[in-house]
Amino acid sequence: MIFISAQPYDYELPDATKVALIVIDMQRDFLEPGGFGEALGNDVTRLQSIVPTVRKLLDAFRDRHLPIIHTIECHKPDLSDCPPAKLNRGKGKLKIGDVGPLGRILVLGEPGNAIISELSPLPGETVITKPGKGAFYHTDLEYLLRDKGITHLLFAGVTTEVCVQTTMREANDRGFESLLIEDATESYFPEFKQATIEMIRAQGGIVGWTTTAENVLQGLG
Ligand code: C5J
């Protein structure tokens, strides 16, 4: 048994074969000027502070040959997988599918839709493309995890209260034991990040656990 010091109490991993690191949406569209995040009116530089920590976690999983799953929020070029409710939301100048400085906003294959170069997936790592905020919606993620016998998920990425939290809630309802790595996730709104951390671990861990990257590395040994 592997114990990771966490809140509201220690996170227990039966063994390292049951765990995957899920890195949510570390894309240029969210972290760099000219992408979707900025089109929504956000200061995207806030998200860049977690890049070294996410990289450290990736390196630790790579060194131990443990599974890594990256996700990308994106839409098909014809936007047929983007419902009007998502397409038309917001009052920004640029909408999903419009051409911005990094190519078409939130469209698969465009320069801005790629994962930032520092965290690029390596061959053999899974990349889940997802049209929604949650990584289980309209994807093969659940089947892939069940097929590999993975029961425990460690979460990093952006943004804490949108795609990370949505995916953790989806995972929790499907019976996966979910741990959020606090210093490997970030939000455009610090108060939303803090609230998310607190609501995840409230009520005895109603959605899951939270911890630090250092605790994860110590626990994995
Ligand atoms: C958002 C995400 N915030 N990855 N996406 O629209 O959190």
Ordered list of secondary-structure elements with their pairings:
Elements: E1 2-4, E2 11-13, E3 19-24, H1 28-31, H2 36-39, H3 51-63, E4 68-73, H4 84-87, E5 99-100, E6 103-104, E7 126-130, H5 141-148, E8 152-158, H6 160-173, E9 177-186, H7 190-205, E10 209-211, H8 213-220
Parallel strand pairs: 3-4, 3-8, 4-7, 8-9, 9-10
Antiparallel strand pairs: 1-2, 5-6
The structure holds dicarbonimidic diamide (C5J).
Dicarbonimidic diamide (C5J) is lined by residues 25, 30, 73, 133, 158-159, 162-163.
Molecular structure report:
Residues 20-207 form the Isochorismatase-like domain. InterPro entries: Isochorismatase-like_dom (IPR000868), Isochorismatase-like_hydrls (IPR050272), Isochorismatase-like_sf (IPR036380). Pfam families: Isochorismatase. It comes from Aerosakkonema funiforme FACHB-1375. Keywords: Hydrolase. With 221 residues, the protein is of the alpha/beta class. 32% of the residues lie in helices and 21% in strands. It contains eight helices and ten strands. The protein has a six-stranded parallel β-sheet with strand order 7-4-3-8-9-10, with helices on both faces. Strand 8, helix 6 and strand 9 form a beta-alpha-beta unit. The mean pLDDT is 97.
